[in-house]
Amino acid sequence: MLSEEEKEELKAELVQLEDEITTLRQVLSAKERHLVEIKQKLGMNLMNELKQNFSRSWHDMQTTTAYKKTHETLSHAGQKATAAFSNVGTAISKKFGDMSYSIRHSISMPAMRNSPTFKSFEERVETTVTSLKTKVGGTNPGGGSFEEVLSSTAHASAQSSASGPRRAEEELQC
Question: What confidence tens digit (pLDDT) does each residue in 37-57 have?
């Protein structure tokens, strides 16, 4: 337990400390105002200060060994990934180039039109068109009903498709 005298001394010390703290706060506040005035006179503002602090922090971070090791590892991984993507891109480009060359040279129109498969298909289409024209509005005195034209066209198409695949396979084997 504290005596009355000790309590009075502690209370006096407490008051003195609070006064000192108040005085120090006032002095600090006055110095901060003075600092702001000087910075304004020099043209320094909060944004410039933040930029300087950020630059300093960034520089400090870049000089750490952890950053250097991480940067080296990521740089090496990036180079490998770039090389891999480049190889994939080259392979895809080459494949598309080969396909383009193949399509361009194997299915050119003049060569395709002169092929036996195309000629056979062309003859079938001409026969079907001629047959339709004849049945719909041609030599048949009744002109033929729409149902008759459809059924005869379907019949002609079925006959030509039955012989068509074998002929196309024979031509492809040659």
Answer: 998 888 877 777 788 888 998
